[in-house]
Amino acid sequence: MKVVILAGGLGTRLAEETEVRPKPMVEIGGRPILWHIMKHYLHYGFKEFFIALGYKGEYIKRYFRDYYNLNGCTTIDFATGRIESREKRCEDWCIHLMDTGQDTFTGGRVKRLEPWLKDDTFMVTYGDGLISLNLQELLRFHRSQGRIATVTAVRPPARFGGLIFEGDLVSDFTEKPQAGEGWINGGFLVLEPQVFEYLDGDRSSLESDALEKLAFDRQLAAYKHGGFWQCMDTLRDKRILESFWRSDNPPWKAWQ
Q1: Could you give the CA distance from residue 37 to residue 126 in angstroms, rounded to a whole number?
Q2: At 69, is the pLDDT very low, low, confident or very high (cuts 50, 70, 90)?
Q3: Which pLDDT tens digit goes with each residue over 22-57?
């Protein structure tokens, strides 16, 4: 099954990092968040990716070209100019790096990929969020619903901890719960090709032009995920993800 990763946005709320690189290339634990997302999909058996490029897309192209070329051992014979690579240990990925325009909206990026996606169910996610979701269970749920689209619903972590009172005294602090607010679109989608009927050109929004209209047509199912989810919108979010990665068991790391 093909997986689309939307990786072309400006990432303006993370300008400290995105002035020099696209947001999906901002690193968590020395690896781009895009790498973490793809490792998660690979763990559940999904390994063909269409990465929809826009802002600084050449950075992502260079990364994956070098990632493959520099993996493993290399022998350089200066007398003959022969370069030989061996013992490569790259992931079993097939990556299509697709230019989808500098100013294209999210739905427009998906629409541009229609020739490659129009024949079967496919997945879509954004290049800035990590999750502990079992993607095979998400796919099974989608197929059981018989709808055009399924969105993964998550409850974002609250930004602040809480206080517990005894009269006018504070008796305890609560941690920042993963259920501080209502359900939102967590960005891990399963779509049928009929979704292209809801998209029209580069200015189409996946969210308002497709998902909202699909909901009105009763064609949008929601898989409720109560586990870990964290987006990377700000420098604070990046630091949160870094702290998780330094822990003994990062919640999104399903692979070994």
Answers
A1: 9
A2: confident
A3: 999 999 999 999 999 999 999 999 999 999 999 999
C-alpha distances out from residue 127 to 11, 53, 233, Å = 10, 10, 11
CA atoms of 78 and 51, how far apart (whole Å): 36
Residue 159's pLDDT is: 66
Structural contact between residues 109 and 207, judged by C-beta atoms closer than 8 angstroms:
no
Q: Which two tokens stand for residue 187?
A: 């960005």
Q: 105, 55 in Cβ contact below 8 A?
A: no
Going from the C-alpha of 131 to that of each of 32, 128, 140, the distances in angstroms are 15, 10, 18
- Residue 221 in this model has a pLDDT that exceeds 60: yes
In the structure encoding, which two tokens stand for residue 175, read together?
């941690």
Can you read off the two tokens belonging to residue 31? 């690896």
Amino acid identity, residue 11?
Answer: G
* DSSP notation for 1-23: -EEEEEE----GGGHHHHTTS-G
pTM of the model: 0.89
User: For residues 53 and 74, what is the distance between their CA atoms, to the nearest angstrom?
Assistant: 30
State percent of the chain over pLDDT 90: 77
Separation CA 50–CA 110 (nearest Å) = 10
Residue 210 has pLDDT above 60, yes or no: yes
Nearest-angstrom CA–CA distance, 3 and 95: 10
d(CA 240, CA 237): 5
